[in-house]
Structure formats: C-alpha cells, structure tokens
TrEMBL record:
Belongs to the thioredoxin family. Gene3D superfamilies: Glutaredoxin (3.40.30.10), PITH domain (2.60.120.470). Coiled coil: none annotated. Keywords: Disulfide bond. Residues 116-136 are annotated as: Disordered. InterPro entries: Galactose-bd-like_sf (IPR008979), PITH_dom (IPR010400), PITH_dom_sf (IPR037047), Thioredoxin-like_sf (IPR036249), Thioredoxin_domain (IPR013766). One of its GO terms (cellular component) is cytoplasm. CDD domains: TRX_family. The keyword RNA-binding does not apply. It comes from Podospora appendiculata. The keyword Magnesium does not apply. This is PITH domain-containing protein.
Amino acid sequence: MSKTVNITSPQQFSDLLKASKIVVANFFAESDVPSELVAPLYEQLSQAVSRPNLATFVKVNAQTQKDVASAYSVTTLPTFIVFRSGSAVDKVQGANPAKLGAIVKKLVSEIDNIDNAEPSGSASGSGSNWRGAPLPRGYSDITSQIEVRRSELLNVDSALGGVQVLFDGGKPSALSGGDGAAKDWIESDTDEQLMLFLPFHSMLKLHTLQITSLPPTNNDDDDDDEAPTRPRTIKLFSNKPHNLGFDEAEDMGATQVIELTENDWNMEGTANISLRYVKFQNINSLVLFVVNGEGDSEKVRLDRIRLIGEAGEKREMGKLEKIGDEPGE
C-alpha cells in the first residue's frame, strides 16, 4: 500500500505542511512522459522514508491543482520540492533521479537526527533514552538504525506488545513498579522459541548486543511451564534478506551462537553481549533466533533490545541511486 498522499485541494496541502515537519512534494501531470519515468523511484523513496507526522510524501497534479503549483512557481514537470516546517528548502526540476536521490539521502540523515534528539516515549511514561547497561568505550547506541516497520517477529503472543516495544527509548515498566497494564514487552507463544528479523537503514558495524529480559519474580502460584523466562541460547544470522523459518534456522550455521548464564544478567535485567566484531562488519540485517530459555518454561520474555556499534552509509540510498543514474554520475 502506497504511503504517498494525493493532494486534492490547497487546504489539504496547507494542513499537511503544518502537521508534518518535512513534506516532499512531487508536482506532476498525467500522461507526461518525464513524470511517468520518475514516478516509480518516487514511490520507492516514499515507502522507504515516510514517517507519520515527521516525513510525508505527496503528489500534486499540476493540471488539477493549479493554485498549489502556481504558489510555488512550478513551471517544469516533474518538479520536486522539499518543505521543512512549512518552508521550501530544496527543489529539483525535471526527471533527475540522481539529484532527487541525493536530496532524499540528506533528508534521511536529517530525520535520523530528529529521532536522536527526540527519543521515543516509553510505555511507562519516562520518555528517556534508557539503556540497561553502559556503552562500551568508543561505540554508540545505533538502535535507531533498525527499520522497525520492516522488522518481523515469529511465534509471538499477540496479546502483548509488538516488535516496536523492544526498541522503545524508555525504561521498561517492570523496572518502574508498573502493574503490567502497559504490556511493553514480548513473549513467545506456542513454545520458548522466538525469531526476530531486523533490517537496518545503514550498513552497520555491530559490536555489542544488549538484551533486557524481566520475567516476573513472584511465580509461586504459577505453573513453571506458563511463567515466562529469560533466553538461554541465541543464534545470530547476519545479512539475511528476510526472516528465517524455525527449521531453517535450526539447521543453518549461525554467524554467532550465544549461551547465556545467570551471571550474564545484571541488576537491570540486561545481558551485555560482546559480539565477534570481525563477523559483524558491514551488515545490513540481523536475525535473532531465541532457541530456548532458562529452565523448563515454555515461554521466553524480551523487554528491550539495544544495538551498539557504528553506523555507516545509508543502505536504501545505495540502492535507490542505481535507478536511472546518468552516465558519469
């Protein structure tokens, strides 16, 4: 489903400029050959970059929305204009995929900076950029490089939080005295195995994986098979284009296998896992397979995941600029 918004009135366009921090507008005309040539690239950019109330991609038919086109001096089709806080800041005239890709590459960097300056609020209401363990010297928290919308969980209890809670910037409710109503964690469903696919915005150098798991401690009245527990064995697979099946992951050689013990978990319920750094250079995705959990429980619980390392060049832009590049560019 397209994320691009079709503008049907000047008022709608004006409202969007107020509601979204960044707006990218494609002024086009039907049956215009240059407009049609660049339309697939624009849709690809929209799918990759759009974010609610932050970055909105729109299409403006210059033939039916003449007032909007005139207001921004659109005389060539297609014309692409980037608006920030309601003001036009960049403009590309004509079907020039290389220039459009370069502008959106800069736009992605700006969006990442906004994300880092405004960490996501937590279900517990703390709104902080919480981590359960210190950062290794010389490395940064690069969790924001995860493409949350394309991430996928398999064998997860749908009654609890979705994949997005794992990357929430706030302190887990279990550490804040919460009553569990927030449901800001995930649990496995039919057995203790979980499969998590994480695609990235950038090529990453991954140094450390921080996993927080906070199963309830007062389980006296609970069946041991029903009470969730922490993961014990985890397999990591790098650079996979999609999620793996459980049978496939069982048989496939992993990039790294992790065996956790009780001593690996700190007072914040976080395991600070150092990775074989040489094996996690220039990766564009990670599959995390929880093979089993502690004890005899048939459920595994995850509260937070943090990726620590270095972020490199934007992966999507590397792909996009190959589409329609002019010779020599």
